[in-house]
Amino acid sequence: MNNPMQDIRYAIRTLRKNPGFTLVAILTLAFGMAANTTIFSIVNALLLKTLPVPHAEQIVVLSTEQKNNPITRTFSYADFQDYQKHADAFSDLFAYELSLVGLSADGNGSHFVISYVSSNYFSALEIQPALGRLILPTEGQAPGADPVLVLGYTFWRTRFGGDPGVIGKHVLVNGRPLTIVGVAPRGFYGTYSVADCQGFVPMSIAGAISKDSSSLWSDRSDREITVLGRLKPGMGVKQAEASLNVTANQLAQQYPDTNKGIAIHVYPERLARPEPDPQNPLPAAAAIFLALAGLVLLLACFNIANVLLVRATVRQREMAIRAALGAKRGRLIRQFLTESLLLAFFGGVAGALLAVWASGVLGSLRLATDLPLRLDFTPDGGVFLYALAAVVLTGIVVGIVPAIRVARTDVSAVLHEGGRGSSDGPRRHLLRNILVVAQVAGSLVLLVVAGLAARNLMNAQRLNLGFQPDHILNLSMDLEEVGFSETQGREFYRQAEERLSALPGVESVTQAFSVPMGYYSDADTLYVEGHPVEPGQRPPTILRNQVLPNYFETFRMSLVRGPGFTEADNEKAPMVAVVNQTMAKTFWPNDDPVGKRFSITSQTGPFIEVVGIVQDGKYRGPNENPMPFYYLSLTQKYDSFRTLHIRTSGPPEQLTSIALAALHEIAPNLPVFDVQTMTASLDGGNGFFLYRFGAGMTLAMGLLGLVLAIVGVYSVVSYAAAQRTHEIGIRMALGANRREILRMILRQGLTVVGIGVIVGLAAAFAATRVTAQLFAGVKPTDPLTYASVVTILTGVALLACWIPARRATRVD
Q1: Which of 46, 116, 233, 612 could cross-link with 578 by S-S, CB 3.0 to 4.6 Å?
Q2: Of 687, 659, 685, whose CA–CA distance to 672 is shortest?
Q3: pLDDT on residue 647
Q4: What gap in Å lies between CA 632 and CA 549, rounded to an integer?
Q5: What is 615-634 written as a DSSP string?
Q6: SS3 707
Q7: What's the pLDDT at 421?
Q8: What percent of the chain has pLDDT over 90?
């Protein structure tokens, strides 16, 4: 009797005798487990997985912060070198810059995501190559030196078929010859958390590959590189931060024009994903979603605990006989816990399988880009350990209350009842009702959060974006990838616009550097004429785009003042700009902004003249506050990287193949990427993707909670009605009609539901204060959401009560 294996065998026999209950219990727990494991898989991939390098806990990310400059987080190369010399708290400081270039090998071209890395990048990470060698600490010490390339493991497998013969192979990157010297180790994707870096080159050749990086080595205001460090053993983040700020103060005195007011922050690598940010919402969002998933599992536990309480009542006589034969109280509790742990185990296995499937589906979601972004939510050992802990905890939560109830049974009283069956006392009714109240309350909280997420998505989609995204097709390209000079590039874009405009169904064609709410943007430090920078302050950094004169017409953006860009604004004419309304109000609140001037170089110029004011729009996300923004003309400031925007009279996706063919007639080897409609770009990118993802996840958990709560309400009302069958028969024999019986049973069930709704409303008010940061577009107390949730929950609960109540009125 004391052998645990006997408990397990007996528990299995007991569960096999009740296949209906066993199946429902396993499925209920499986859905709760799946929700938890899936959410934890996402959190694990985004925040908890360490870099696949030795002693990853020592890796930190550095960030710069400058007063009145929220965009500054990266470093200039010159500053990085100075910090390297005085990094007493670090065994190494190393750096990288992510860039998109073109790779040409074996006559085939493709766009290619690379990292320009410092010479000590791989040695600091302490990793070994999968093939060949990595960049050596002695390489990349001078501009233009060491044109070598290390391939990313995934890219080597897909682009070169895993051929070991690539070592020593010569390829063209943006038309510049490089030599492949090695392949990065498997599982190492670079140090930007959401990208699968396809290649690594020394920072010394950045200027040779990309014109945008030509000033990297000399200009302290060119802050483009991300700096990481490996802490010395025993050194903490705060100590390292204090040490770096001593150097920052010294640089501020030496170079006040570029370094005044800069402070350094240090973050553990896992808390700096995807970029270091003191207001990073990712950890808080992860905690909130884990809490919601935990609530789903708790509701599942309450559901099964309720059923087990009923089964415990039925099994009172069995347990009393065991006790009379000498079984100790602990022995009886162990038997019940064995059964609940078995249920939790089977539910956990089913839940893990569901989680693996769900994680695969989420990982396959297509974002609005062809870039190799990495969303790998596949569960690993840590996730399964988490699931195992959840299984054990679930088994205890589910079984402990029924087990203790049974262990406290009065043996004498139960045995003296004989064959009359055991009664179910009011205390057990109360406990089951409390569990149902908790289920209804928890379900209401989940549904309110899901409702707020859905409302947030709808509000975001109804926002005035400042432009009309419908009927626009986007095609992105970078002519540096095929080695075009500026003269060749200008001619290509002229021909491309001419040919695309002639296609049937095309209303207009324009060009721009960045896509609204896309993955990349540009910004400049502004020196506004007549607004001298105060001592100790830095000029503001303002986002901008480069566009053709017809850009505003194509996007249906209204010019509210001034002529805007004209064809006369060419490369020989003085520089001009169009600013948005917020920028006009910020810098010239009491003057006419048209004709005013600012510089992106220095306080003394050269200056750019404002020739127009355009309506405000959304530039980084739907719920952002109005921000200053300005536009330069692509005809004046050439950029090889552009997106062609084609406005069509019909469905724009139908024009895709024709447009691509027209471009390849001009440049056959040109890689064209992110080919999609503007609407698809918004749905899958920085526009609405996160809103859809959050709404979908919370809605799934809300529906799970609703189902669990309704099952709980139904089971309690149904069981209570069955227990009162004898009483109902007597009442009807004494003259009670069916309406009165129906009202009596409904009142009992709806009382429990009503209490649950009241408790749930109070809990939801508290919970939504915490989740408010996730749903910036809707108030946490949104009355429509609360009214809708209460109506839906009450209506479904009423149906769950009505079915057993209706059955009770048919008692003979």
Answers
A1: 612
A2: 659
A3: 96
A4: 9
A5: ----SS-TTPPP--EEEEET
A6: helix
A7: 44
A8: 34
Closest CA to 385 of 27, 44, 26: 44
Angle between helices 77-85 and 237-254 (to 10 degrees): 120
Total-model pTM: 0.78
DSSP per position, 191-244: SSTTB---EEEEGGGHHHH-GGGTTTTT-TT---BEEEEEEPTT--HHHHHHHH
260 — phi, psi (to 5°)?
Answer: -65, 130
d(CA 324, CA 266): 66
Q: In this predicted structure, what is the pLDDT of residue 54?
A: 94
Q: Show Cβ contacts of residue 442 under 8 Å, excluding neighbours closer than 6 positions.
A: 295, 298, 299, 302, 705, 709, 760, 763
Write down the pLDDT at residue 631. Answer: 96
Q: Virtual CA dihedral for 404, 410, 416, 422, nearest 10 degrees?
A: -40
pLDDT at 205 exceeding the cut of 80 = yes
pLDDT tens, residue by residue, 296-321: 888 888 878 777 776 666 566 666 66
Locate all alpha helices (DSSP H) within 373-425, ordered by sequence. Answer: 381-407, 411-417
Look-up of token digits 């200056």: 607
In the three-class reduction of DSSP (H, G, I as helix; E, B as strand; rest coil), residue 412 is classed as helix
Q: Is 49 helix (H, G, I), strand (E, B) or coil?
A: coil
pLDDT of residue 487: 92
Apex 78 CA angle, 73 and 84, nearest 5: 85
DSSP bridge pairs for 677? 473
Look over the chain and give the mean of its residue pLDDT values, rounded to a whole number. Answer: 84
Q: Give CB contacts under 8 A, 24+ apart, made by 464-467.
A: 465/516, 465/517, 465/617, 465/618, 465/622, 466/516, 466/557, 466/615, 466/616, 466/617, 466/618, 467/516, 467/555, 467/556, 467/557, 467/617
What Rg, from alpha-carbon coordinates, does the chain have? 33
Q: How does 421-437 read in b/e, with b if 16+ C-beta sit within 10 Å?
A: ebebeeebbebbbebbb
**pLDDT at site 1:** 45
Q: How many CB atoms lie within 10 A of CB 259?
A: 23
Give tens-digit pLDDT for 785-801: 889 989 988 888 888 88
CA pair distance 693, 324, nearest whole angstrom: 57
- Two tokens at 527? 């020196």
| 159/152 Cα distance (integer angstroms) | 10
Task: Tell me what pLDDT residue 306 has.
Answer: 75
- Comparing C-alpha atoms, which of 539, 521, 519 is closest to residue 529? 539
What is the percentage of the chain residues whose pLDDT exceeds 70?
89
Query: What pLDDT is stored for residue 320 in this prediction?
Result: 63
How far the first Cα of the chain sits from its last, in Å, is 45
Q: Looking up tokens 């400042």, which residue turns up? A: 466
Summarize the confidence of residues 98-123 as an average pLDDT: 86
| Residue-by-residue DSSP string for 514-562 | S-TT-S--EEEE-EETT-PPPTT----EEEEEEE-TTHHHHTTPPEEES
Tell me the mean pLDDT in the region 736-750.
79
Question: What are the phi and psi torsion angles at 408 (to 5°)?
Answer: -90, 5
